[in-house]
Write a structure and sequence with these properties.
- The structure holds two protein chains of two kinds.
- Chain A is an alpha+beta fold.
- Chain A has eight helices and 20 strands.
- The two termini of chain A are 38 Å apart.
- Chain B is mostly helical.
- The mean pLDDT of chain B is 88.
- Classes of the chains: A alpha+beta, B mainly alpha.
């Protein structure tokens, strides 16, 4: 068997827009999804993630490029003959069939005999923890239950790849959190490759082995959750995944991996980077709010003077909005370890914002 | 006075339902009762009925044994009328079949268009209603006539040498009826298909159903209410049709409708016409009830 469960090779999908133009919903995307992996396509709406999923499922055909499933070219394979199954956003359960008829649909199409079908249906219902629901109709089930039935209906076919199109989007927050963990556990148990489309970055970070961050039809970065979070490749990725402060400046010098960046009136900071920069190059120093400290000036680190503009208490943390000379702003996140933590600074106070030299990322695009 | 009505629930109900119920009684129920009465009396000399009425079952007996008619010749066929009934039902089934076969894909096609096109196409379906039915039927007759549009077209193309006999036969009657009743089939089916969630077809394909199987297992059952409505709306009036078979069949194609029409017209045999009307009504009623009985479960599932 081929190394990759799914490969997208330079895939382009163009649509005609209602205004008469042509839109590349997916624009030269190349990615490899490993066998047994929980892979997420993450991005805002209209980024091409659902279109990519639909092309893998076979509901759309690529305008250019190729899609391979376990090494086999899918160009000439219609949706109903592909070794994948989909969990749809609105579940798309058949309303005129019972839960049992819904779940066994795929097996029936394959010609599996009735006796084996009903055995496997009850196994599938056990797996999604809804035993004994065979005779219900989809309308009689809650959203969460319908979601599980949709999952059982897809998984019973033992697909090579399971495609999930924002399957938790319609559930309320608490149920969504529960289902996230359940899905992840289920995926480990069955060992099937999951390709999961979501716009929820937290969901993607929680569940995925690897994430592809997409924007405007392009896959900006593919990597493990911590890689994406700690080493975002572009400003968009840094901004979309979690929260990031961007401090804009100019490269003044580079000594090995240590880059010196001048941030206008704020002074100079040092940041580690494996990339080579040229002097005078415009860069953004991207640093996460939780990596900034307030009034913890340390030698050998970056220390910036600024004024507190706002203090927001959110229970676990306190957020401080700090404005630096020259007008740039940063948000500092301090954990409320002790009760008086929130008294650390008040609006209008002069403070020092500190961060280590390995905390920031230097981004140019 | 008003207060009195407001306090009495029964009067309120009567006030709301009364006018409609009265209308239905006077213009629907009463005429049927009159027809029922006429069907059990002897005919008068100049049409109408004998007065004072003479009661008889002959009008019904005659239906099943045409030789009982006072005009029957020595070589009469006792099952003449039964045959015409059967013939009408057959035409009804053929026309309904084609209306659904042609109408369903058309309704599907229209439902898949953008909103603007959908509205425009639906208007095109309805437009024929704006023209008088007779005018439309005569127009169609011109198309199918020996030297009509279709024949001259085919002959000019050189596809045929002699004009085809397209008019004054059962084919012409079927074409006329399909043409006339197609919109009645399209409208309810369109309503059903438009509500259909096409993601379900993707779900079926995703689970390994070929397009044909996905249609039979998912789309057809879910749009069946529209198909059944189309079936009833076309079959019922077509079985009793009399204008189209008259014009398109040139008097050569006998249907129950034309037969009944003649009893109240030139034949001046009201009681026989009345008995046929009631038998036709009964037949259609039994058919429709049987169909609904056998399909209610499916229809209910159609949600």
């Amino acid at each position: 068997m081929a190394e990759y469960a799914v490969e997208m090779q330079d895939v382009v999908k163009k649509f005609a827009t209602p205004e008469g133009g042509i839109l590349a919903a997916v624009n030269h995307v190349t990615m490899q999804i490993k066998d047994g992996e929980f892979f997420s396509l993450l991005g805002p709406s209209g980024c091409g993630k659902t279109t990519s999923l639909r092309m893998i499922a076979g509901f759309e055909l690529p305008t250019e490029g190729k899609i391979l499933i376990h090494g086999k070219d899918m160009s000439q394979v219609p949706a109903f003959q592909r070794p994948v199954n989909t969990v749809f956003q609105q579940y798309a359960l058949f309303p005129h069939m019972t839960v049992e008829q819904n779940i066994e649909f795929g097996l029936e199409m394959k010609g599996v005999p009735r006796s084996e079908r009903s055995k496997r249906v009850s196994e599938a219902l056990d797996m999604v923890r809804l035993p004994g629901m065979e005779m219900r109709r989809p309308k009689q089930l809650s959203g969460g239950q319908q979601q599980r039935i949709a999952l059982a209906r897809a998984l019973i076919n033992k697909p090579e790849v399971l495609l999930l199109d924002e399957p938790l989007g319609a559930l309320d927050l608490k149920l969504r959190k529960e289902m996230q963990l359940e899905l992840k556990t289920l995926q480990r148990e069955v060992g099937i490759t999951f390709i999961y489309v979501t716009h929820d970055q937290e969901e993607a970070l929680t569940m995925s082995d690897r994430i592809a961050v997409m924007s405007k039809g392009v896959a900006l970065q593919v990597g493990k959750p911590d890689e994406i979070y700690e080493r975002p490749a572009t400003r968009f990725v840094a901004d979309f995944i979690g929260e990031t402060n961007f401090l804009n400046g100019v490269v003044k010098g580079q000594n090995g991996s240590m880059v010196e960046v001048e941030l206008g009136d704020m002074g100079t900071v040092y940041a580690e980077s494996t990339r080579a920069f040229t002097n005078g190059q415009q860069v953004s120093v991207a640093v996460r709010p939780e990596k900034l400290r307030l009034n913890g000036e340390t030698k050998g680190e970056n220390n910036l003077k600024g004024r507190v503009e706002e203090v927001i208490y959110i229970g676990t943390d306190t957020h401080y909005g700090v404005r630096f000379p020259g007008g740039q702003k940063a948000r500092v996140r301090e954990q409320n370890i002790t009760q008086d933590n929130r008294e650390r600074a008040h609006t209008g106070d002069e403070v020092t914002v500190s961060f280590t030299r390995i905390s920031p990322r230097l981004l140019t695009e | 006075m008003l207060k009195f009505f407001r306090e009495k629930k029964g009067f309120q109900l009567f006030g709301l339902l009364g006018p409609g119920a009265l209308w239905i009684f006077i213009f629907f129920n009463l005429p049927i009762l009159i027809v029922l009465f006429i069907s059990f009396v002897e005919r008068g000399r100049a049409g109408s009925i004998k007065i004072p009425p003479v009661y008889t079952f002959d009008n019904y007996v005659q239906l099943f044994n045409a030789c009982r008619s006072q005009f029957a010749g020595p070589e009469c066929d006792p099952l003449l009328y039964v045959g015409i009934f059967g013939h009408s039902v057959r035409i009804g089934l053929v026309v309904t079949f084609w209306c659904i076969i042609v109408g369903y894909p058309l309704a599907y096609f229209i439902s898949k268009q953008k909103q603007v096109w959908r509205d425009a196409l639906m208007i095109l379906v309805i437009i024929p209603f704006w023209t008088n039915f007779l005018v439309r039927t005569y127009a169609l007759k011109q198309v199918l006539a020996t030297e009509g549009l279709l024949n001259s077209f085919l002959m000019n193309l050189g596809m045929i040498n002699n004009p085809l006999d397209l008019l004054f036969n059962e084919f012409a009657v079927n074409v006329g009826l399909i043409y006339g009743y197609l919109p009645f089939a399209i409208l309810p089916m369109y309503a059903s298909i438009e509500k259909f969630d096409h993601t379900l077809m993707e779900a079926a394909a995703d689970l390994g159903a070929s397009p044909a199987r996905a249609f039979l297992k998912v789309m057809l059952p879910l749009t069946l209410p529209g198909v059944i409505a189309a079936l009833v709306l076309v079959f019922v009036p077509v079985v009793g049709a009399f204008i189209t078979p008259d014009i398109m069949g040139g008097g050569k194609i006998e249907m129950i409708g034309t037969l009944i029409n003649r009893q109240f017209g030139v034949s001046r045999n009201w009681p026989f016409g009345a008995s046929m009307s009631l038998i036709l009504m009964l037949l259609v009623l039994i058919g429709v009830i049987a169909y609904f009985r056998s399909s209610t479960e499916e229809t209910r599932r159609g949600i």
